[in-house]
């Protein structure tokens, strides 16, 4: 089943003195259950594309449809609400809340969704177990390694039961062992829990694991290969 469709999506940054045409006429369809990588050199438009997919930024023109909703038309609290219930984010720099423990970081999203306390705790434990951190519930981000922090971020992204997870260069700051470990967890979640993952990378090892590789250059899709 189709989860996301991009139709002739363009992004022109016009806020600085130079005009940057970051994404040029991208057409893409993502299906439920995909494990897809967006690859391309630095500056090719990966982050811009993922931000638009996640409703964090708007296309200059074109359309993005997620489960029949035209997300570029959503504004304010309707957009925030849509994101909260449909999309999980994982960032290159983890973006955990430093004063909260691993457990609290994961619980936070469910709190905003109004999930009752008992259910929240149950699901948090289950999720942190799944990413191999069942024994680190009360650790704060500073007490965890980069790889562990990113696994908390994956658990947090899953907490809202999103339709898909967007990950922007999730392994960029990780050593090779933590990279492998994170990829194994993402792959397991994809295969066993049918979580759809769309991630960007320029790491060849990460690319190899993807079942679909979309290559972008200068804001254009130049290759789209399914394995
Ligand atoms: N907020 C912004 N304002 C102006 N230009 C930007 C902004 N964000 C990104 N760009 C430019 O858009 C292009 C694509 O950037 P980006 O999407 O970050 O690429 P990537 O993630 O592949 O490195 C680059 O030329 C970058 O300098
Ligand atoms: Mg980027």
Topology:
Elements: E1 2-13, E2 20-31, E3 35-39, H1 46-53, E4 61-66, E5 69-70, H2 76-86, E6 87-90, H3 102-113, H4 117-130, H5 146-159, E7 164-168, H6 176-192, E8 196-201, H7 204-209, E9 212-217, E10 220-226
Parallel strand pairs: 3-8, 3-9, 6-7, 7-8
Antiparallel strand pairs: 1-2, 1-4, 4-5, 9-10
Helix pairs in contact: 3-4, 3-5, 4-5, 5-6
The structure holds adenosine-5'-diphosphate (ADP) and magnesium ion (MG).
Give a structural overview.
It is a single chain. This protein has about 230 residues and is an alpha/beta fold. The chain has one domain (about 1-225): Rossmann fold. It has helices at about 45-55, 75-85, 100-115, 115-130, 145-160, 175-190, 205-210, and strands spanning about 1-15, 20-30, 35-40, 60-65, 70, 85-90, 165-170, 195-200, 210-215, 220-225. Helix 6 links the parallel strand 7 (about 165-170) and strand 8 (about 195-200). Helix 3 (about 100-115) packs parallel to helix 5. It is globular, with a radius of gyration of 17 Å. The mean pLDDT is about 95. The structure holds adenosine-5'-diphosphate and magnesium ion. Adenosine-5'-diphosphate binds near residues 15 and 20.
What's the rounded overall pLDDT mean? 95
Fraction of residues in helices?
25-40%
**Proportion in β-strands:** 25-35%
In CATH, the architecture is 3-Layer(aba) Sandwich
Small molecules bound in the structure, each named once: adenosine-5'-diphosphate, magnesium ion
Nearest-angstrom radius of gyration?
A: 17 Å
Count, helices = 7
Order of helices and strands: EEEHEEHEHHHEHEHEE
The separation of the N and C termini measures 18 Å
The CATH topology = Rossmann fold
- Principal-axis shape: globular
CATH class, named: Alpha Beta
């Amino acid at each position: 089943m189709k989860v996301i469709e991009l139709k002739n999506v363009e992004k022109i940054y016009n806020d600085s003195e130079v005009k940057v045409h970051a994404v040029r006429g991208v057409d893409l369809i993502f299906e439920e259950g995909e494990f897809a990588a967006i690859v391309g050199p630095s500056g090719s438009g990966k982050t811009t594309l993922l931000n638009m997919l996640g409703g964090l930024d708007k296309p200059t023109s074109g359309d993005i449809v997620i489960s029949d909703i035209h997300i570029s038309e959503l504004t304010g609290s309707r957009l925030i609400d849509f994101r909260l219930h449909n999309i999980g984010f994982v960032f290159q720099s983890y973006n955990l809340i430093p004063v909260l423990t691993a457990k609290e970081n994961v619980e936070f999203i469910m709190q905003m969704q109004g999930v009752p306390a008992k259910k929240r705790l149950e699901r948090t434990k289950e999720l942190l177990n799944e990413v191999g951190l069942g024994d680190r519930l009360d650790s704060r981000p500073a007490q965890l390694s980069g790889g562990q922090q990113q696994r908390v971020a994956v658990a947090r992204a899953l907490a809202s039961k999103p339709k898909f997870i967007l990950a922007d260069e999730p392994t960029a700051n990780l050593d090779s062992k933590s990279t492998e470990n994170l990829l194994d967890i993402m792959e397991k979640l994809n295969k066993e829990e049918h979580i759809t993952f769309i991630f960007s990378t320029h790491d060849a090892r990460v690319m190899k694991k993807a079942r679909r590789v979309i290559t972008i250059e200068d804001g254009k899709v130049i290759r789209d290969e399914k394995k």
